[in-house]
Amino acid sequence: MTISIYDMDRTITRSGTWTPWLKFWARREAPWRLLLVPLLAGALIGYAARLITRARLKEIGHRLFMGRRVGRTRLLAAADAYADKVIATNIFAGALAQIAADRAEGQRLVLATASNEYYVRAIAAKLGIDDVIATASRWDDDHLHHRLGGDNCYGDIKRVLVEAWLEREALAGEPVRFYSDHVSDRPVFELAEASGGEAVAANPSKALRQLAQERGWRIVDWGQPARSFFERA
């Protein structure tokens, strides 16, 4: 085994990180934007009704709570502070222990998540994870735009992005160990299995636990995740 890839929300963290990030940003940078919570609630309802995509929901949430453009220095300072909060309050101890064990094995550690890359990188750095595969945002010079810079890193798209990363790093065909809590990551679990690596269902949802039992995948329980219909990634 040479590569360990981790999902983030509810795999390493107890709860989702996107809505808490938006609230954190607004409280820190523009408290008046908290008045726009009802508009975000409307967008969440639209997403739940499948009237808008998750990618579009992320763009709307960003536009409401962060504005159209944010300077890089300001953003990185807030992301670093948010990462400190996540590490202090929202991480499974079992996940930290597994990351440390994989590192001790000499594994290359990767975080692959649908969450936004601009704050995921800050969290990954504090976990000691150098490689990140996440939902990219658009940058205009030194300013982050509210539009995404690519596809939402979820489901089949996550597998495509993981495979592209493996190709870029000259690691295609290497055994992969993959950890996730959700059945939406089935394509990446199957990639890990096909590589001769290992699929690990961590804190699995009901559907993933059933699939893992059927496929003979290892199951680990690091704690009880906080489930949210609106943050299914």
From TrEMBL:
The chain crosses the membrane at residues 30-49. Keywords: Hydrolase, Magnesium, Membrane, Metal-binding, Transmembrane, Transmembrane helix. It comes from the Bacteria. InterPro entries: HAD-like_SerB (IPR050582), HAD-like_sf (IPR036412), HAD_sf (IPR023214). The keyword Metal-binding applies. Pfam families: HAD. GO terms for molecular function: hydrolase activity; metal ion binding. The keyword Transmembrane applies. NCBIfam families: HAD-SF-IB (TIGR01488). PANTHER family: PHOSPHATASE RV3661-RELATED (PTHR43344:SF13), PHOSPHOSERINE PHOSPHATASE (PTHR43344). This is HAD-IB family hydrolase. It comes from Sandarakinorhabdus glacialis.
